[in-house]
């Protein structure tokens, strides 16, 4: 490979093909040739991740495939991000994300986090089995725009509504947009508890997040 475009195409291809072992070497070669690291991130790695998510959206890839693609993307990011600083101007918004208390299933949450990060959101990941007040405390502490909650269990669904009620009680409901998702969640449930958005998958979650904060142009 000689040209910058050849490297960008190769990075994107390696993400889609889940080649997490060799992508770091390709990214280092790219840097050693004096090419722009930020362009490598956005026009190489993220372009590949976008393609992977398109395949997921078209049901050609499963969640597990997308997570393997993300491993490749992060392997490349570990190299390129050392050579570039993302300024505050590049950040679309700040989102707190986590799996609600009582649930430890986090594959879906991780996928949404990844997609939102690649779209330009700063993600505050609280992990899984998150105490309800922690969502609020983290949102306040990080001056977040969004609170994103997920669960795969019907037994913990109501905890999402409890967080919204707690926001109201603490006079904070108008300060944050609340997004929810997960296997048992529906638009009807979102309407019932007063969430601002429900989405079925990570691709839709990104679109919804941008719309909620007015960055969907």
TrEMBL record:
One Pfam family of this chain: B12-binding
GO molecular function annotation: cobalamin binding; metal ion binding; methionine synthase activity
Keywords from the UniProt entry: Cobalt, Metal-binding
Gene Ontology biological process terms, A to Z: homocysteine metabolic process; tetrahydrofolate metabolic process
Cellular component terms (Gene Ontology): cytosol
Name by which UniProt lists this protein: Putative dimethylamine corrinoid protein
Keyword Metal-binding tagged: yes
Entry annotated with the keyword Metal-binding: yes
B12-binding N-terminal domain sequence ranges: 1-92
């Amino acid at each position: 490979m000689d040209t910058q475009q050849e490297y960008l195409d190769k990075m994107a291809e390696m993400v889609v093909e889940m080649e997490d072992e060799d992508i770091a070497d390709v990214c280092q070669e790219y840097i050693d040739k004096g090419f722009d690291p930020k362009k490598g991130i956005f026009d190489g790695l993220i372009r590949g991740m976008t393609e992977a998510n398109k395949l997921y959206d078209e049901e050609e890839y499963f969640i597990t495939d997308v997570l393997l693609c993300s491993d490749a993307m992060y392997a490349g990011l570990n190299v390129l991000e050392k050579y570039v600083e993302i300024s505050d101007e590049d950040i679309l918004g700040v989102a707190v994300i986590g799996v609600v208390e009582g649930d430890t299933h986090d594959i879906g949450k991780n996928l949404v986090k990844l997609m939102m990060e690649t779209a330009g959101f700063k993600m505050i990941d609280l992990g899984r089995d998150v105490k309800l007040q922690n969502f609020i405390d983290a949102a306040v502490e990080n001056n977040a725009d969004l609170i994103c909650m997920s669960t795969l269990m019907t037994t913990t669904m109501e905890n999402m509504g409890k967080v919204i009620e707690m926001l109201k009680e603490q006079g904070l409901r108008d300060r944050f947009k609340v997004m929810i998702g997960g296997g048992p969640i529906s638009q009807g449930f979102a309407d019932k508890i007063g969430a601002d958005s429900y989405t079925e998958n990570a691709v839709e979650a990104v679109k919804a997040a941008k719309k909620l904060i007015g960055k969907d142009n």
